[in-house]
Amino acid sequence: MPIPLARLHVQHERLQGELEAAFRRVLASSQFVLGPEVEAFEKEFAAWCGVRHAVAVNSGTDALVLGLRALGVGPGDAVAVPAVTFAATAEAVCLLGASPVFVDVEPHGLTLDAAALHACAQRRRLKAVVPVHLYGQPARMTEILAVASELGIAVLEDAAQAHGASLQGKPVGSWGRAAAFSFYPTKNLGAFGDGGALATNDPQVAACVRRWRDHGQVAKYEHAEVGYNSRLDALQAALLRVKLPHLTEWNQRRRDLARRYRQRLSSQQFVEPLKEFPDAVHVYHQFVVRCRDRSKLVEHLRRAGIETAVHYPKPLHMLPAFAAWSPGVGALPVSERACAEILALPLYPEMQEEEVDEVCAAIAALAGRTT
């Protein structure tokens, strides 16, 4: 039987009764934009993240844009972002008229390199930095915050891939001044369409984002500022409320399967899983390995009915969209090499142990032929 990257329908079938009840509740209320369901989800998600405030918005991208704006980022500012991440991290900077400054990643987990950030800040004044908790692994926030504190740089976490991850016992989303989350359907906590949230302990940041997401209104038809239409639908909030109580269990299942992958892959050298930091709780939004002959592995697994994906085939500074801010090919060697080697293998809470074994056996078979 084919092994896909994800099986969302299995998760939804198991929750069907609860999801349908939530849908009927919203339908009966006729409150489809913001309202009690969104307010309830915001309180529940804030408590789950260990912060005082969560403001629900219509996407993770908007959470980044609004979060950076609340931190004072605007035209002419420079914001550091890692070169290995989804385009939205840098796109949000550009949408505010600021300039993304691409920083290399550390080689073990491919998160923002604090030493590279410090070196970058010596060359250019930075208004903010956006560390990304890539694939569910927390960035090295202690080191990053030390640099940011020394140089007066605001910190917005990109936690779009890391719902429930923690570092040194502290949840992601509670390290920086604010954090952006995404509820894209394939995320560990996924909606049934787009959705996002800005988490923060700063009441001023929360108030700004809450105002801006609704056209800058402070009361109905009282527009204090130019804002956005970035409101989360009540239906999405209601469905996310069904899923949230299951997230700890789902994340633990991901960790258990990742541990099995590591055990089964430890006897070969054809692929190398990214490192899991010992002081972190990695929630494995993706299980990513490095392979120097990636194209051969992808084709071999495809023929075996195993789906894979590359997140991401090019570092951001090598994409046409960001050419104006690129330091040039060769400037960020760790990121460039990583993007030529990384590959995500199937991993999701509903995956069976036998399927992990099948993927590992297929890799071992190819490794045996290439040694």
How would you explain this protein's 3D organization?
The chain is an alpha/beta fold and 371 residues long. It folds into 2 domains: 8-245, 3-Layer(aba) Sandwich (Aspartate Aminotransferase, domain 2), CATH 3.40.640; 246-370, Alpha-Beta Complex (Aspartate Aminotransferase, domain 1), CATH 3.90.1150.10. 41% of the residues lie in helices and 14% in strands. The chain contains 13 helices and 15 strands. The protein has helices at 8-14, 16-29, 36-49, 60-70, 88-95, 114-123, 141-151, 203-212, 234-243, 247-265, 294-303, 333-341, 353-370; strands at residues 53-57, 78-82, 99-103, 128-129, 154-158, 166-167, 170-171, 178-182, 196-200, 217-219, 222-223, 272-273, 280-281, 287-290, 342-345. A 7-stranded mixed beta sheet has the order 1-9-8-5-4-2-3, with helices on both faces. Helix 5 links the parallel strand 2 (78-82) and strand 3 (99-103). The longest helix has 19 residues, at 247-265. It is globular.
